[in-house]
Design goal:
By secondary structure, this protein is mainly α. It is 79% helix and 0% strand. Helix 1 runs antiparallel to helix 5 and helix 5 packs parallel to helix 7. The mean pLDDT is 86.
């Protein structure tokens, strides 16, 4: 039974950690920056400028929600579709951290160490956090899958892998207590 749990754990790890590990690249593709930090900064500079222009219009008493000005509509659309900078920065890094933690969990599960229970709970908590902070970015021309969808697949895969790692240790304990 432990062997089956380990097999499912490895398969779920490959899916979940693979998705979590490539999430940063997917977010960059969706934003159209392709990993270029200058392009990313340029996008957020444009968003800051658009926010400043909208604030100026509000101070002047112009109702931006009913305005027919294409510049205002474009600025509002840019602000709406661009995710928060901290989400973009931290989602990819957290995905790589989760991949590393899940790998450690796999190794500990094969080594039959008790700490695998704590690491598996950590992987589940980090996976939930990753799913929560991953931005939902609209599709571009060559953008690939939605980052939120990839984070959901990673969450499911890593929760299954964590559950299997947890159960493999519990099965090992049960088997070792039965033989004593």
């Amino acid at each position: 039974m432990r062997v089956v749990a380990l097999i499912f754990m490895v398969l779920a790890f490959l899916v979940g950690a693979g998705c979590a590990g490539v999430l940063f690249k997917n977010i960059e593709n969706r934003m159209g920056t392709d990993g270029d930090s200058q392009k990313t900064e340029e996008v957020y500079r444009l968003v800051e400028d658009a926010e400043k222009q909208i604030e100026e219009l509000k101070k002047q008493g112009i109702d931006i929600t009913t305005s027919e000005d294409p510049q205002i509509k474009e600025n509002l659309e840019l602000i709406e579709k661009t995710p928060a900078k901290w989400k973009v920065d931290y989602a990819g890094k957290l995905g790589m951290l989760i991949t590393l933690a899940a790998f450690v969990m796999i190794v500990l599960a094969f080594m039959k160490k008790e700490i695998v229970t704590k690491v598996s709970l950590l992987v589940v908590a980090l996976s939930l956090t990753l799913w929560a902070i991953t931005p939902d970015i609209e599709a571009g021309t060559f953008s690939g899958a939605n980052p939120k969808s990839i984070a959901t697949i990673a969450l499911v895969g890593l929760v299954i892998a964590s559950g299997c790692a947890f159960m493999s240790y519990k099965i090992h304990l049960k088997k070792s207590q039965a033989t004593v």
